[in-house]
């Protein structure tokens, strides 16, 4: 949590000025137009029930609606992430912009960026959210923003083509309407989930498909409706689960759970551990049978699973064995060294494959922004080329430079 200067806690204007300063300091805001938009829009009026310090916190979301299990299905996104995405979008005055996933606040920021000659449409699948966004927008002086109730999977054809489409829920795929709905030099900014990790990717049009301009790790509530993610998940025991979006990977919960009870084999790569975004992307695309291992705090504290699994860690799985990445402090490798924990009858061969990738990463690709991510719509080639992930509407292809 970002702490706010005590004297300001009841003064939204002062809190907003602090927020803009801090977003600049943290390089989330890097341009004057985005700074001016954040300074202009009264963020707290889009979170009328939240305490002011929460509304103006840089990194926390404000809950708006939960599902029957108590999980967030709509939040006001964290200011830091909104700033990063608006910088990625590079919105100019006069543009026509579609936001998928409403709340009101981000649409108001976009309205500030496009100015009075621009047009902003925001669409949400949930009537409560659309109604709430409408009220907040009208109440804050942004009555010109259009609100639409629909599944964003099909876009909002009425306003096409858009100069920018900005998606604010974690998307598992890129439906055709998001590409065809863009102008020829349009940009799509989307939190795309690839092998269990979500990155906000700014995509430009590239022939029939898309090519990344920038990417940043991001967390979002999941997309609902037609485009909702379809992943297979195996709960091994309370607090331990593996999941994968690779249809070729089979998860045998019973055998993998049994593997965890066998002695753990720990090996170290001698290679640096850093740049987790790029490393993770590389691993999940290169591992021959990739899944994601998640463990709860209790399980980690019991010593059964390493802390690397708390937020999910790329795992290599076979029918009855599992290997995943760990790290330890090591000044000789620049601060941290990556390693592998493996369990089960094939622990040694899985650990070898994993360690080789960790070393190859450190040797050949260890650089921020080293990946170019493409989305190629249409039927996937068979067999699927190396470094690609199969989606429903096309493939994600990653190249390294
Ligand atoms: C993180 S919230 C949006 C935050 C908002 N942009 C803001 O200003 O802070 C994500 C929203 O996406 C919406 N959503 C999820 N799936 C959707 C879909 N298929 N089409 C349109 N909206 C969707 C949810 O209802 C939720 O309100």
Automatic annotation (TrEMBL):
It holds the Pfam family PCMT. It comes from Streptomyces umbrinus. GO terms for molecular function: protein-L-isoaspartate (D-aspartate) O-methyltransferase activity. It is found in: Cytoplasm. Keywords: Cytoplasm, Methyltransferase, S-adenosyl-L-methionine, Transferase. It is an enzyme of class 2 (transferase). This is Protein-L-isoaspartate O-methyltransferase. CDD domains: AdoMet_MTases (cd02440). Transmembrane segments: none annotated. Its main location: cytoplasm. Its EC number is 2.1.1.77. GO terms for biological process: methylation. The keyword Cytoplasm applies. SUPFAM superfamilies: S-adenosyl-L-methionine-dependent methyltransferases.
